[in-house]
TrEMBL record:
Top-level taxon of the source organism: Bacteria
NCBIfam families: pyrH_bact
Name of the coding gene: pyrH
Protein name: Uridylate kinase
Organism, as annotated: Gluconobacter wancherniae NBRC 103581
Localization, UniProt: Cytoplasm
Length: 245
């Protein structure tokens, strides 16, 4: 297992995908304020370096449409509930960031004007140019999608230099390393390898959207303290997913 020691990845604008699970702590569901604060600390450190940062927040720690559908709920209805769950996480993260004096804006794909701005692409870009961390909530606004796809979509729209996917492990493995000690860790993969090997990192729609627009994806362990900052310096462990070199 080799450590990535590249020069600084020198990104000017990035999108960080924070899954609901990343905010959950050790419990089976819900939100752990300490985890939210740890993620906010890392984001705040990166924003302080002058990198423009936007976030897509998941909701799987609270509600997933597909899980509700498996128990008989209408899938689309469940997905709308899932999208609302992401807004709860976004408000928690916004609060944690603002307690650290980071200026933020939450923008939602489903309008809820009394708590957040509606998503308007050019306005989001302007916020980032002014140094605000923009938190995109409510996924794509459409059922049958995931927040991974929302992350690829918004990263393309914002013309980000990379999509950083914070996960529970330090990169992409051939199998789940928590269950299989022989799982191999990759330091770099192509989009097509991820799709062809059906590697469980992001859904196919998200990978395809990144591939069509040559958006690099960097997968790292968001639970390691300071991991986001380290990845931005090209340090620590991560997997890059890029076009074939
Ligand atoms: N969701 C959706 N459309 C989207 C994004 C999310 O319908 O564009 C719903 C879907 O039900 C999903 C839930 O919101 O299960 C929570 O998002 P996700 O599972 O992607 O969260 P994460 O796994 O990142 O915590």
């Amino acid at each position: 297992m080799t450590e990535n020691r590249e020069q600084s990845l020198s990104y000017k604008r990035v999108l960080l995908k924070v899954s609901g699970e990343a905010l959950m702590g050790s419990g089976p569901s819900g939100i752990d304020p300490e985890m939210v604060d740890a993620v906010a600390a890392d984001i705040s450190a990166v924003a302080a370096t002058g990198v423009q940062v936007c976030l897509v927040v998941g909701g799987g720690n609270i509600f997933r449409g597909i899980a509700a559908a498996a128990k008989g709920m209408d899938r689309a209805q469940g997905d709308y509930a899932g999208m609302l769950a992401t807004v709860i996480n976004a408000l928690m993260l916004q609060n944690a960031l603002e307690r650290r004096s980071v200026e933020t804006r939450v923008m939602t794909a489903i309008q809820m004007a009394s708590i957040a701005e509606p998503y308007i692409r050019r306005r989001a870009v302007r916020h980032m140019e002014k140094g605000r961390v923009v938190i995109f909530a409510a996924g794509t606004g459409n059922p049958f999608f995931t927040t991974d796809t929302a992350a690829a979509l918004r990263a393309n729209e914002m013309e980000c230099d990379a999509l950083l996917k914070g996960t529970q492990v330090d990169g992409v493995y051939s199998a789940d390393p928590r269950r299989n000690p022989d799982a191999e860790r990759y330091s770099q993969l192509t989009y097509l390898e991820v799709l062809a090997r059906d590697l469980n990192v992001m859904d196919a729609a998200a990978i395809s959207l990144a591939r069509e627009n040559k958006l690099p994806i960097v997968v790292f362990n968001i639970h390691a303290p300071g991991a986001f900052s380290a990845v931005m310096r090209g340090e620590g462990l991560f997997t890059r997913i890029v076009e074939a070199s």
